[in-house]
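Researcher: Here's the sequence for the chain we discussed earlier.
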Amino acid sequence: MNLEQLRGFVEIARLGHFTRASEHLHLAQPSLSRQISTLERELGTELFHRARGHITLTASGDALLPRAQRMLAEAEAIREEMGELAGLRRGRVRLGAPPTLCISLVAEAISTFHSAHPGVDLHLTESGSRALVEQLAIGAVDIALITESDGPPPSGFSLTRTPLLTEELVVVSAASQPPIAVTPSIGLEYLSTLPLIALDETYELRAATDAAFRSAGLTPSHVLEGAEMDAVLRFVERGFGVAVVPAMVLLDQPALRSVRLTHPMMTRVVSLAHRSDVTPAVAVAAMREVILSTAAEVARRDPAITSLID
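Model: Thanks. This is the structure I predict for it:
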């Protein structure tokens, strides 16, 4: 058994097709077929059900797939670490983060990291936390910022989470218009009377806000629903309405002002996650330290954000 055989096996399992897998691997299909036949012979079992135009995993293939993915991820981590020993002059970091963090914490962390290690390739995957946990599971990202409310990782997958900070959900409005309140905070009942721009339903904080309104027996006054975070902020800037967003979104947003939301106060925990069964490469470990220090600095600048780092 070798890594090339495992890489071919994983690619066929992902694409469900020998030809497409061989094209993606830049390998002749007969060579890929021989690799899989040799692997099956060495393991003493068939890994695929083969039918014309339709390839599926056998029970043995299902059992092998997560282990093969782990072995390939660990091998990639070893390669990265060997290439990074010379002072992080080269390497790769694949970071995942939700959109609400990409325009704040992530932007600052990546800028700081790149200034210190310009030779390291940076790859950013912007997605919801649930999808990022799945990306961690298959080794598609090395490290990810996720919110704690997104449930447990997939079965059989060991995930290490480091809580970074707790941030409040705040109500933002246009700085060019009169404040929506003379007090530093408002309640949910008052918020329900304001023109509210709501995020797309795939956002966790949209679900949390909707649940809070239902629990209080209130109906929000939506003027727009279904927008992504960047669009929501632009609409708010133009005075179209207000929005409920994480406090960190307000960093470096002079065109917006915010008031804290109380009765009830809603918060979310931001954590840094990586696979427990894969040793982080040197560059990934360095990015982790940059994110930790950036999160602590962000918390010092806003009373609505609390650091959880010891």
